[in-house]
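Example record for the data management plan.
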Amino acid sequence: MSESLSSVFKALGHPIRREILDILKVSPRTTGELNAYFPEVTRYAIMKHLKILEEGNLVVVRREGKYKRNFLNAVPLQEMHNRWVGKYMETTANSLLNLRLAVQEKGGNESMKATKDFRIEQEIFLAAPREEVFKALTEKVEDWWEFRLAPKGVTSNFTFDPIPGGYFLEKWGEKEGAIWGNVYYVNAPEEIRLYGHLGMQGAVNSAYTYRLHEKEGGTLLQLSHTASGVIQDHWEEEHSKGWEYLLGTLLKNYVETK
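Corresponding structural encoding:
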């Protein structure tokens, strides 16, 4: 843990690297696109900064054709938050942040755009065998998946059928429920792909993928979540934070403390 935190602090220690993360928070960028934001910095220097961010696991690189696209991975930041910010302190801190934002921005309206898309890429290392992580993601999802679509105060149950055509389903009552995802690809225990709204409403196409790679001492879990359609501006940030919490906190604690 201390070694990984040292890499994160090192990655955050330079203003250019922090600015790169601010840019990637808005949307992923290629190295060339990032270089254009810093006209006085050489491409080689930007590549070195990206390498340090990647070593700190704050940037995830995905190849798309002949280009490599850089994505923000906020999971290590969430882990730092979990370590040093208690649940009571979090309420106070958020209140102060919201007050500051209100003063700075003098209010603002949430907007909805007719056509919009987002893509979330995250990685998390889990100190558990790949088979156990896959089992937790599918057969044992009810034990750690905290979010609910059931009405407030109503108890619900989850089932996950990890076969092509299977459902990730939440049910309450006799006939009420919601589908969190439809399974359309399974290669156990390496990969599973689903499509589903994940709490979003309306004309939205949404799909997410778990990829599991064996790594010394455990499993590297890669999440990809894409969505397009009539998407509200705040949905991407909410889903990014939701995944950080679900995978980086709840799932991680579940598989590592069993």
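Summary line stored alongside the record: The domain at 2-78 is CATH 1.10.10.10 (Arc Repressor Mutant, subunit A).
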